[in-house]
Amino acid sequence: MSKVAGIHNKSPETYPSSPVKSNVLETLRGVNPSAPINGSFASILTSLIMFTPSVAGAYATVLVSGFIESPSPDGEMTLQIVLDPSGSDIVELASTFEVHAAGAPVPFSMVVRTGSLTGPHSIDVQAKTTSGTATAAGISVVVIVTSA
Amino acid sequence: MKIAGLKGRSPETYPSPRANGLVTTNSEVNTNPVALTMTQANLFGAGSFGAVPGDKVIIAYSGVISAVSGSILVDVSVVLDNAVTLYTLQLEVKAATVPLPFSLVFETPVLDDTLDPHAITVVASTESGTATVAANGSVIIIIIPS
Question: Are strands A121-129 and B100-107 parallel, antiparallel or unpaired?
């Protein structure tokens, strides 16, 4: 049987392709000690996290943590991670949390990876209450931009 | 002229991405419960993780807090060099035997040269003195050279 280029020392049947190796292109961060939440989606960051991947087809892994407090009990809040809020406005992930009692902080965390990206982009974390007002605090965001 | 390893590439036209991909990852699982009081206690079993000036460090931690009696406020913090609190997450355990799961993520700024190496820890303390423990802690540390 003739040799096949590119499979030296490999048996494709026995050893399926390796996971795609990615290169960390850059990391970005955002912190905000406190942000009010009301009945409409609004950013809980001090500013958008903006980046331009140095290679086309990059991905952004977004990790968010913090806690929510409500001045009134039984408050429900929705948090969402948004890609390009001033452009395509894609909600990458949304999750709802409930504060059961006033003064009882509820921790939250969310992680999501975007699709393949090219060109400049921005990441936002937004929140709103179902009714009433609340506060998001200890907000921390980490964005890891990788090549694949 | 042919150059080995450059087939199909023009280094002038397609410069390599910044070599920021050489990250170091560390992890630890601490299955031992850590007793919490009003004094900050280290949640790592092995002390701290080190990084050098110029690095950025991403900390991802998950664990559970439980209390002997309810309604205890707990502060979980990322601390640099056992002195500087970089990030704090406030949690409340509402009742005894109702463990509260939590996780946090944080990236440090680029570490300066005031110390070499720097030490990163995750600590916790209660805002009142009732017996509380942190358990099932797992931490991932990603060190990124700048």
Answer: unpaired
Yes or no: say if A133 and A36 are a contact pair by the CB < 8 Å rule: yes
Contact B102 A109 (CB under 8 A): yes
pLDDT value, residue B20: 54
Provide the mean pLDDT of chain B: 83
Closest A-chain CA to B62: A109
* Cis, bond preceding B117 (omega within 30 deg of 0): yes
ipTM score of the complex? Answer: 0.77
* Percent over 90 (pLDDT), chain A: 64
A27 contact partners, CB below 8 Å, separation of at least 6: A142, A143, A144, A145, B56, B58, B107, B144
For residue A106, the surrounding DSSP H or E stretch is: strand A106-113
End-to-end CA distance of chain A: 35
